[in-house]
Design a protein that fits this description.
This protein is an alpha/beta fold. It has 17 helices and 9 strands. Helix 7 crosses helix 9, helix 10 packs across helix 12 and helix 15 packs across helix 16. Bound molecules: adenosine-5'-triphosphate (ATP) and magnesium ion.
Length: 356
């Protein structure tokens, strides 16, 4: 396809990916996932990828595309909460000339762009009810309607969805259509959290160490046995993304102290005087951990209070929006919980966190 074609111009490249051996590691849960992926990639059925934030849902979606018979076709990713609700319908389904004020020409939607390829709908729980109905129609008979069009169009597309929420709970709360859930959930892949595949941690560490040493032209050495022990024991609330960020910081700063403070055991109360004083204690280290812990808890509380509207949360915390996005990632908090009411959705800047 030529690049002057407006459709092909918007189709995204698949991007760099770690080798399969690194992605799957050697734990049983990942071996089963790999087996499942190989079977489902070749069949044109919808796939739902579920798992906590940072477990690799994006990578797996790309692998499904690249192992499918449609791998030479388009790969189209839509990060649902990153596009304000009112724009999402036209982004997904396109529009005809004159469909609404400002529609000076027709525009094909991303569903159409994904023809004979893969449409990846990330954070699917964020679709509002109207769009859920349109998606249901697409999955039922491969048809959809551009906004303002008289007739339906037909498209052949493999739909892959991902979410870090429990869709069953969203259904119970009346936020997600159960009939759509059954359609997108023909095959389900569950990404195990990193704490359940601790045996894979050393290999991931070696991979990220080498990768970021190369990228930053650095020479950080392999972590000591002590640090490796803490890395293996840590509970990784932000999963592989948190591990990757930590290794990036380690490579850039080059000292073990730059990351060891983050590897606090779960539920340690740094504010209590019960901290063991047997053996040497580092006041500096404990104070730093306490500050980070307090910061994490406070950010979480403010985000919840502001219904995950990160712009309002940043204002309330009196820090910049960018600083908040950085801190959310760094603390391993969920990256994307945009509210479903369009007027509360922050504009495209949401992409900063969503894009990997
Ligand atoms: N198994 C893995 N092997 C190597 N790198 C991984 C693996 N899983 C995740 N990563 C890395 O961790 C980061 C986060 O992964 P990814 O974006 O796929 O997670 P996600 O589950 O989609 O998270 P979110 O729910 O926040 O969107 C990426 O930089 C990715 O390259
Ligand atoms: Mg993702």
């Amino acid at each position: 396809m030529s690049t002057s074609n407006p459709v092909s111009a918007l189709i995204q490249p698949l991007g760099e990916m770690p080798p399969d051996s690194v992605v799957f590691g050697s734990t049983e849960a990942m071996r089963l996932l790999r087996e499942r992926l190989a079977k489902i990639a070749v069949a044109n059925v919808p796939v739902l990828i579920q798992g906590e934030s940072g477990t690799g849902k994006d990578i797996i979606a790309r692998m499904i595309h690249s192992s499918s018979p449609w791998k030479t076709g388009p790969w189209v990713k839509v990060n649902c909460p990153a596009i304000p609700g009112t724009l999402l319908e036209s982004e997904l389904f396109g529009y005809e000339k004159g469909a609404f004020t400002g529609a000076y020409g027709m525009k094909p939607g991303r569903v159409e762009m994904a023809h004979r390829g893969t449409l990846f709908l990330d954070e699917i729980s964020e679709l509002d009810m109207g769009l859920q109905s349109k998606l249901l129609q697409l999955l039922q008979d491969g048809q959809f309607c551009r906004i303002g069009a008289q007739e339906d169009k037909k498209v052949e597309v493999r739909v892959v969805c991902a979410t870090n929420r429990k869709l069953e709970e969203e259904i119970a709360a009346g936020n997600f259509r159960s009939d759509l859930f059954y359609r997108i959930n023909v095959v389900n892949l569950h990404m195990p959290p990193l704490r359940e595949r601790a045996a894979d941690i050393p290999q991931l560490i070696s991979y990220f160490l080498e990768y970021y040493n190369r990228k930053f032209n650095a020479r950080a050495v392999h972590p000591s046995a002590d640090l490796m022990n803490s890395l293996k024991k840590y509970h990784w609330p932000g999963n592989v993304r948190e591990l990757e960020n930590l290794m990036k910081r380690y490579v850039i700063l080059g000292t073990e102290e730059s990351i060891s403070g983050d590897l606090r055991p779960r539920e340690v109360d740094f504010f209590s005087a019960d901290i063991s004083v047997e053996g040497p204690i580092s006041l500096k280290k404990i104070t730093r951990q306490a500050v980070r812990e307090l910061e994490r808890k406070l950010i979480l509380k403010v985000l919840q209070h502001h219904h995950w509207n990160r712009k309002s949360a940043a204002r309330a915390l009196n820090i910049s929006y960018r600083a908040l996005l950085y801190k959310i990632r760094d603390a391993g908090l969920p990256s994307n919980r945009a509210p479903r009411r369009p007027e509360q959705v922050a504009p495209a800047a949401n992409n900063i966190v969503a894009a990997d």
